[in-house]
């Protein structure tokens, strides 16, 4: 009989009584998998598959020519916020053909962080439309890729057609501190917004 010992971080403290589910959404190659990996305290679950020639006509690689894999189901991570509360992060596939998965993953979600890339802001329009159609409150995080242009917040808000109350933050999906700031901004917005989803699970 072979036994295995799981790392201590695999287990939640016994004091945890509440959880919150957050979606991390956005277009193809915007950094969702990286964001979930950066924020997860456990080894994240990935559903990455190698890209094939069949995807070349539909997956735009102009801004990310070195990308060789893509999420085909979800990314999953966990972050314990305090002794009683844990956050579960669900990263969605970016391509429109996986939109049906977004709808399934959105069940029970408190809100969403929509990641965007200034090199192709128009690619984020569909993600915002889907999140709004699902009735989820959300914040937008501009993932600052190396070499990408920087723009004033007012220009970004106008380009993304955001309402004044929708939080807009910048982050680097590789950096824990800036990702934490993005999630804190989202959570503060969600916890001060009334509505049927405005309570922790």
TrEMBL record:
Keywords: ATP-binding, GTP-binding, Hydrolase, Nucleotide-binding. One of its GO terms (molecular function) is hydrolase activity. Gene3D superfamilies: P-loop containing nucleotide triphosphate hydrolases (3.40.50.300). SUPFAM superfamilies: P-loop containing nucleoside triphosphate hydrolases. Signal peptide: none annotated. It comes from the Bacteria. Transmembrane segments: none annotated. Belongs to the GPN-loop GTPase family. This is ATP-binding protein. The lineage of its organism: Bacteria, Bacillati, Actinomycetota, Actinomycetes, Pseudonocardiales.
